[in-house]
């Protein structure tokens, strides 16, 4: 068992899980001030993850785990036949799933900046657009969150499928280790956490 995921990737993943649950709970119970605060934290995490995806540990970089269609379909064939061998980063299907997750989260964050309940709460940038645009973006915000929850459900099912195929993706994201012959090169991730904290502090100051 060798280390394949650095502390930032693992911490970011589980903080995101908790934060999305918090966003759902605060919205359902109308705790909108906390909803905004959690969203600020998610935004900081996501921006730090984008930077880590460019200059972080090699196996955490976007260019490393996003593969073309041929690799995508080849991976599905290997998984179906039982010939799948885990690698040092996300598999080709998982890489595209990560991009989809990021897209949904950024849509959620972006529309939330302009969303409003037309009574008690409006996003920090809602005043910059018309009431009609606010209403449209609010509808997208609500719809997109349902899409995000559906995708999360599919993600959980996929984890179970890989577990049945002998790959413990959940365990790897907890302890960071995977059974491989050679460990990937991992960078110290302290600066990524510092950047996330700085971004969250700045956003909290202006919007929190």
TrEMBL record:
Membrane topology term: Multi-pass membrane protein
Keyword Protease listed: no
Domain Cytochrome b561 bacterial/Ni-hydrogenase: 4-176
Any one Gene Ontology cellular component term annotated for this protein: plasma membrane
Localization in the cell: Cell membrane
A single MF term (Gene Ontology): heme binding
Transmembrane segments: 12-28, 34-52, 93-115, 145-165, 186-207
Record keywords: Cell membrane, Membrane, Transmembrane, Transmembrane helix
GO BP terms: respiratory electron transport chain
PANTHER family to which the protein is assigned, alphabetical: BLL0597 PROTEIN, NI/FE-HYDROGENASE 1 B-TYPE CYTOCHROME SUBUNIT
Record's protein name: Cytochrome b/b6 domain-containing protein
Biological source species: Pseudidiomarina terrestris
Lineage: Bacteria, Pseudomonadati, Pseudomonadota, Gammaproteobacteria, Alteromonadales
